[in-house]
Design brief:
Layout: E1 8-11, E2 17-23, E3 28-33, E4 38-42, E5 46-48, H1 61-64, E6 78-79, E7 82-84, E8 89-92, H2 95-98, H3 107-127, E9 132-136, H4 143-153, E10 158-162, H5 165-168, E11 172-177
């Protein structure tokens, strides 16, 4: 399949979305991924996003987060399930917290939405130099937790550990972020 510059695509071998930026050659496309980085992908590993899914990328994460911090003892300010406290940010990746309805979505599509939300949240936390984030993924069969941990394993300048059991049970990961 031939793609055009500006088309929105998803990846066959990993979760996430992107926009075709250019072509390195007949077999490699340069994609601006959902985390804001240009990456090279084999064209045969890309899938065009059609129809209703086409708005999956265009959202500006800044517009979805409010800039005010709340007292750490107060209730969270919840916009797109990102809660900001004075000393950390928190996101709940349960699918019913991310999407208004998951009807008609396969398990893989729901997982893609969850990982997409995680990547956007992580990128925004890094941009704002947040020192700690909590990622609520639930227990379940551990698929989402594994995706969260795999994503974090590929990042530099952080320490990953289980969040406070008394507050989150076994269903959350805490991340300390370090900056140079």
């Amino acid at each position: 399949m031939r793609f055009k510059i500006g088309e929105k695509v998803t990846f066959m071998k990993e979760s996430g979305f992107g926009v075709v930026q250019s072509f390195k050659n007949d077999h490699i496309a340069v994609i601006l991924d959902d985390t804001g980085f240009d990456r090279e992908f084999p064209i045969n590993e890309l899938v065009k996003i059609y129809g209703d899914q086409s708005d999956a990328i265009g959202d500006d994460f800044d517009a979805e987060l409010v800039e005010e911090n709340v007292d750490s003892n107060a209730s969270a300010n919840n916009v797109d399930d990102v809660r900001k406290y004075n000393d950390y940010w928190e996101i709940d990746l349960h699918i019913h917290e991310i999407l208004e309805s998951e009807l008609g979505l396969s398990n893989r599509e729901m997982l893609n939405h969850q990982v997409y939300a995680l990547r956007r949240f992580y990128r925004k936390a890094r941009e704002k130099h947040i020192r700690k984030i909590i990622i609520i993924h639930g227990v379940g069969q551990g698929v989402l937790k594994n995706e969260v941990r795999d994503f974090l394993a590929g990042q530099d300048g952080l320490e990953v550990y289980d969040a406070d059991f008394r507050e989150y049970g076994k269903g959350a990961t805490a991340v300390d972020l370090f900056y140079k």
